[in-house]
Amino acid sequence: MLSLSCFVAVNVLFFTAGSATTVHDGDNDFTEEEQAPKLDYNDPHWCHTPGLTNGEVTCRSPRGVAYMSTLGTRCEMRCDRGYRLLGRSSIQCLATRRWSATAFCRKMRCRILPLIPRGRYTCTHGFEVDSRCDFTCDTGYRIEGEHSRTCRHGGRWSGLQPDCADTDPPKIRCPPSRLKVAEPGKLTARVTWERPAATDTADKSLEVILVGQEPDTDFKEGVHIIRYKVYDQARNRAACKFIVRVEVRRCPELHPPLHGYISCSSDGNNYGATCDHHCDGGYELRGVSSRVCQFSRNWGGDPAECVPMEIKSDVKTAPALLDQFYEKRRLLIVSAPNISDPDYQLQNIMIQKSDCGLDLRHVTLIELLGSPPRETGRIKESLLNVEVIEGLRQAFRISRSYFSMVLLDELGMDRERFITPVGSDELFSYIDSFLLGEEERERLELHRDFCD
Hints:
One of its GO terms (molecular function) is signaling receptor binding. By secondary structure, the chain is of the alpha+beta class. It folds into six domains: 1-34, no CATH class; 37-106, Complement Module, domain 1; 119-165, Complement Module, domain 1 (Ribbon), CATH 2.10.70.10; 171-247, Sandwich (Immunoglobulin-like), CATH 2.60.40; 260-308, Complement Module, domain 1; 318-446, Glutaredoxin (3-Layer(aba) Sandwich). The protein has seven helices and 31 strands. A six-stranded mixed beta sheet has the order 29-28-27-26-30-31. Strand 8 (119-123) and strand 9 (132-137) form a beta hairpin. The longest helix has 17 residues, at 2-18. The N and C termini lie far apart (96 Å).
């Protein structure tokens, strides 16, 4: 009687711990959940009767044979031959009225046997356990190895895969290796050759496999190994290879002029590549604007240089002045009634602080102040002729009576007008967004911190 009480006490304590019962160290009192099931070791149907399709269940109960589903019953699971057990091999009836695990039997199969070249196989029961597969070869070939394989109980085939013997490999011969020079302005060369043919003593028709780039296509600079391989029906192999070498003729590295930079086509210094010279803001090009890499590996023409841009302010007409900026520089014309105009003074201060930023964007500042006979115009310290001032005002409709600022692009077109002072950030944002080309924007990013 004492042993049964101990057994019940242990199981009750185990159940309540699994059912979130609060246990205090050193105390025997505990609180059970209101919905906890009442344990009953006498109920023979505490758990449902277990079953195992294509298998056998053997159970042992602490209460005896008549209580095979009562609390504490343990069952051993075993599958029939040709089946594999998935899940637990041993389960127990728990206080929750559920078995501790599940299991089922899955039919065993061996993997699909691969086909053998020049042969075939037939199986008694497909790829199921105990099925036997017999191998045969085509006429003129013979089996090397075992003639049959059997699917064993563990899901593995007996023996090794046989072969159908044809020991004579095919024959193939590749074309000779070749060297090609890349075409002008390119880093590739088009290379072609005749596809090799293969012969074999056993097979009339053979497929020749290319490993590498196709003929009559553009090959990149460097060494390319071209391989051909061929297999007969018995998987005897033959192979050959040759080399295609593509050479790119190159000139020495071309350095940009001082206060300038270069932009090159193709790879920059390969035969046929063209490098255009450009100057930074405030400088203009003297010499050839572009050079070409020759077949002799030398650059055509002489080196160019970037010299400080000279603006002739003593010209007599506005067109003569504007022609100097055409496709070279942009113009920012600032006009005010007089030098004491507060808008002009504010704008002048902001422009002076951003003068370097104007140069990076190839912008030249022209100031027009006052009215005749005291009207003046200047580019920095250089004064403009009266006719030039009048020509600029008429061409771009610039008033003498109020502050204004006109932004012209490289073609002399009126792109934007400002009638109140603008900060450098707003001015530069407009120039960067609407007037700069892609190459100019890239250069600007490289030199953006130059003025700091």
